[in-house]
Write a structure and sequence with these properties.
six-stranded mixed β-sheet, 22 helices, Beta-Lactamase, 24% strand, six-stranded antiparallel β-sheet, 869 residues, alpha+beta, 40% helix
Amino acid sequence: MTGRSVAGQVFVLQVVIVLLLVVSAVVAQVLQVRHDSDVEAANRSLAVAETFAHAPGTVAALRSPDPTAVLQPRAEAARKATGVDFIVVMDTDGVRYTHPNPDRIGKKFVGDITPALEGRTVTEHITGTIGPLVQVVVPVKDSAGTVVGLVSAGITTAHVGGAADQQLPLLVGAAAVALVLATGGTALVSRRLLRQTHGLGPYEMTRMYEHHDAVLHAVREGVLIVSGDGQLLLANDEAHRLLNLPADAERRHVQELGLDEETADLLASGRVATDEVHLVKDRLLAINQRPTDLRGGPPGSVTTLRDSTELRALSGRAEVARERLNMLYDAGVGIGTSLDVTRTAEELAELAVPRFSDFATVDLFDAVISGEEPRPGTALRRTAVSGIRGDAPLYPVGERIRWVATSPQARSLTTGQSVVVPELRKEPGWRAQNPERTDRVLDYGIHSLITVPLRAGSLVLGVANFWRAQRPQPFDAEEVALAEELVARAAVSIDNARRYTREHSMAVTLQRSLLPRTLPEQGALDIAYRYLPAQSGVGGDWFDVLPLSGARVALVVGDVVGHGLHAAATMGRLRTAVHNFSSLDLPPDELLGLLDELVGRIDQDENPAGDAALVTGATCLYAIYDPVSRLCTLARAGHPPPALVRPDGGVEFPEVPAGPPLGLGGLPFETAELELAEGSRLVLYTDGLVEDRERDIDEGLALLSDALRRTPGASPEDTCRAVLERLPARPSDDVALIVARTRVLGSDRVAQWQVPSEPAAVSQVRSSVTRTLSDWGLDELGFTTELVLSELVTNAIRYGRGPIGVRLLRDRTLICEVSDSSTTSPHLRYAASTDEGGRGLFLVAQLAERWGTRYSPHGKVIWAEQPLP
C-alpha cells in the first residue's frame, strides 16, 4: 500500500479521519465535563446557600448582637458536610459574618450583591484565590419578606470535574481499534479495486478515463445519460450539436432543454427504443435507448443519436424508384384487363392517382371509342377522369373538347411528343383554351401538367393529361419519362380494345342481321322474346318463330358453342337450315336429324384434315304447337329443357328426352308430346340464362323456376322482364329467351268431315263447305273454296287411300285440308293443251295463297290457305 496507490491513499485518509475523530471526541469530552462541572457547582452552591439561608435561626442570628459567634460554627459545619469550598453570611452591606478564613470576617464580600438585595438569587463564575469557582448569593428574608442578610456558597470546578481523565484511555483504545479496522478494510477495498480494475492503478484509471472522455466527445454519434428522475447527467459534443442543447444542459431536466415534446417524452420515459426516427429541428434522428438498471445498475437510461437525414434522403430516392417500378408493374397487370376502350382509359387514370399525379384525364377521338381509326383534326371526348377529390373544375367525362392550336394537348397531338408545363399560370397557350375555366382550375390549386400522346404505332389515339395540385413541386424530367412509359403501355391496350370493339361491332351487326328482327304473324301463340349478347363478345345463341300449316307454329332455340364471327356465321347457317327444313313440315325429331347431318357436313367442309370438330357442341330445341289439338311436340339436341308455367302459376320442367349435341351423329332423337291448357306459358331459353362460372345449371334452374313462380298470370312480356331482372347487366354468355302463351282454336272455328272413297262424295263435301262458310260469314270465299276442295278431294279419291278427311280452319286465313292414308305426294305439273287431266293442283296453286303437303304417322295432308276478305 504505497502512498500512490488508491488503497494507501484511502488508508492515510482513514488514519487522519480517526485521529480527527479522537481529538474531536477528547475536546468534546473536556468541554462537556467542564460544562457539567459548572452546572453541578452552581446547583450544589445554590442548594447549600438556600438551605442555610432558610435554616431556622438564621434570621435571629443575623439580628443578634454577635452574628459571627452564632453563624460561624454553623457555616463551617455545613461547609464540611456539603463539600463546598465556602459559606459566607453577610449583612445587607456585604460585610462578612462568616468565612473559612477567620481573618476575612468583617471584610467586604467580593461579588455582585445588588440583585440579591432585591430578593433575587445571583449565580457568578469567577476566579478567586482558590481558582475558578461558582458562587451563589441568596437573600435571607424575615417573615415579612424583608431582606435582612445574604448567604453565599461557592465551590471550585476542580473539585467537581475529573471524569474526562477517566474516559481518555477508552477513547485512545477505540481509536486504536478504528485504525486496525481501517487497515483491514483498506486491504479488502484494495483487493476488490484491483480485481474490478484489472490491476489498474489511479494513474492508469485516470488515463483510461481521459481516453474514454476524448472518444466520447469525438464520436459522430450523440450520447446522452439521463438519471431515473429525468435529469441529464451527460451529453457529448455530438449530442449537443444534434439537439442544439444549451451549455448548461447537464443537471437539468430533459423537459427543460427546449426539445420537441415527442423526443423529450422519450428521453424522460427511459423506455427501450430501437432506431426510432424523430424529426428534431431540420434533422431526422435515429434514436436508440436502453435502461441502465437492467443488471442492478443505477436507475436511468443511455441514449444514442444518429443523424439519418442524408441516409433518409438516399433511401427516399430509392423508395421513389422502387415505387415507380411497382407502378410500371401494376400498369402491366392492371391496365387492359378488359377489351373495353373506356374501361382501359379509366384504368390508366385510376392507376396514376394518387401515386403519380393528383388528377389524371384521358381524351380520345370519338372514332377510337367506336372502334374505328382516329381521324386527326376532329374533336376529342373526355373518356376518363380520376382525382384525389371529385370537385376539380376540369372538363367532365363525356365532354367533347377541341383543343386550340396553342394548347399543350394540341401540340402533343400534332408532334406526337410529350409536353410538360411546370407552371400552368405562366402558360398562355393553355389559358387561351377557355380563360374562364382555366382561371377556375388555377384557383382550385392545379399548377403543373404533363400531356402525353396515346400512340399505337403510327396512330395517335388521344392524349393523357396528368395534373398536380396537392404537391407543390412541379413535374420533373424523370416523371415525364415515367408518364410516357405508363401511357405507352396503356396505348397498346387501348388500341387492342379499339380493334376488338371494331370486330365486335362487326360480329354484332352480323348476328343482329341473322336474328329475327320481327316475329311473323300467327294466331296460335302470344310471344315475347329477349336476346342479351355476352360480356365477352358475340356468341352463337339464336331463336326463331316459324308459322306452319294448319295454324301450327314452330318454336326453335339454339346455341353454337364459342364466340365471335365464326359462331355468328355458323348460327346464321343453322337458322337458315331450320327455315328450309321447317318448310317440309317435318316432325321435330326428323328435323333435328337433318340438322345434325348438316352440322357434320359443315365440320367436314371446314376441317378436311379430320381434326377436332369446329361446330360440335351446337345445341337446339325444336317445338311445334297445334292450337286445335293443344298438343306441343318437342325434341332437343343437347339443349336445356323448356319450362312450362301452368295457368294456375305452377312451374315444371317437362321430361323431354335429351338427345346428343348436333354434329355428333349416330344417335336418334326422340320427341315428347305435351297437352297444354289455354293460357299456359312455354319458356324456351339458352344455357346462358341458367348457367355461368359462379353457379351450376341446377341452381340456375331453381332460380328460373322461382322467377316464373312469382309471375302468375303475367303476360309474356312481363315474364321476360321478370326473368331477366335477376341477371347481371352484361352476362358472361349469350342469353336467348322466348316466352309463348298458348291460344286455342275453338270448335266454332273448326269444321271437319269424313269423306267416302267414291266420286259422288265430292258434291256432298261441296254442300257442307258452303253451309259452313255461310255460318262463318265467308260467303265470298264459297266458290273458290268449293273448287279447291273439289280438286283435292278428287285427287285423294283417285290416287290416295281411305279414310279420307276434310277440315276447314278459320284462323288468320281460311285453311282447307284434305287427308288420306297414302304417303304418295302429289306434284304440280303444267298440262299440255291436249291433256285431259293434270290441271287440278295448278288450279289450287292459282286460287290459294299457299299450299303444300305434310306427312303424318297415318298418311299425308294436303292443305291450301286463302286470305280472309
